[in-house]
Amino acid sequence: MKRYVLSMILFLAISGISVKADAGLIIKYDLSLIGLGETGIFDRQVLTTVDATSFYPLGISPGATFVDTGDLQIGSFTLGGVAVGDTEGLNSDWELTGRWDDLTGTLVSISAGYLDPDGNLDYTYTFTYTSGTAVLKADLSVDADFGSGIGSDDDDASTFTNGITLASLSLISGNAALIDYSQYSDGGYTFTKWDIVDVPSGVWLDDSGNDLEEILEKYGWVEVNTKVSTNVIVDLVNNKIHSRNDGDVIYAVPEPTTMLLLGGGLLGLAGLGIRRKKKSA
């Protein structure tokens, strides 16, 4: 009977992790390192623009691997889905930007869809991300220049790595689908999940002002969801796929219930191992 109970604890622990695995954080930044005070509290960052360029050295075809470079600009914050103002004026005195240069992946498929009004087929490109690193930066001066082109190779990478580093990230997983509707419109999405590898001390705060450095580095991750939402944002040329998206960023940690279930499961395994050792002695 005890063995059954311990097995059930472990099962619940695994189930808890897979079914109910994360909780958003209410956070704020202390940006005194760049001459600013604290932001207002928020639980989500709204992306103004995400530019990305995937390079396919052997051609754009199913099964081909690629390296993606890109950058993002965060334009506002929300709390509970409602827009909130930050105390320093995100769009006037300072900015948040991100940059990645080594996001790798594989083009899974290219599928034809509907005809556009000119009789051209639209195509959906689906792919997965496998590895990569990225940084999030805060800068006092607004100097990021997205330009008028599409894709990160139209932008000055140096403008996305100014200021202080708010987070260093490592890719956990990701996937995307980009739809090329010829000259009329485009669509699609990207989803990436990142491990929070490193954050500065005293910058990430909860809504009570407590430092979140330790919990973010041990348990935190970032989910970045983007959608293709404007015209002429997917462009294929010279073995490259350019895209321009917007979306949001959510910071998460395991829920307390999940961590308790996991702890209970591990304790159950330990207890089972000890009992077996006693029986065999």
Question: Could you please describe the fold and organization of this structure?
Answer:
The chain is α+β, with helices and mostly antiparallel strands. It has 2 domains: 1-20 and 254-281; 22-253, no CATH class. Helices cover 18% and strands 48% of the residues. The protein contains 3 helices and 14 strands. The protein has helices at 2-19, 213-219, 256-280, and strands at 23-24, 27-29, 44-55, 65-79, 82-84, 95-115, 121-131, 133-139, 164-181, 185-198, 204-206, 221-227, 234-237, 240-253. α1 packs antiparallel against α3 (256-280). The longest helix is centred in the C-terminal third of the chain and has 25 residues, at 256-280. Mean pLDDT is 80; it is low at 1-21, 257-272 and 274-279.
**In the residues, how many domains can be counted?**
2
Mean pLDDT: 80
| Helix and strand composition category | alpha+beta
Unreliable parts: 1-21, 257-272, 274-279
The helix/strand order is HEEEEEEEEEEEHEEEH
Describe the global form. elongated
For the report, how would you describe the main beta sheet? Answer: 12 strands, antiparallel
**Beta fraction of the residues?**
over 45%
Strand tally, please? 14
Which percent bin holds the helix content? 10-25%
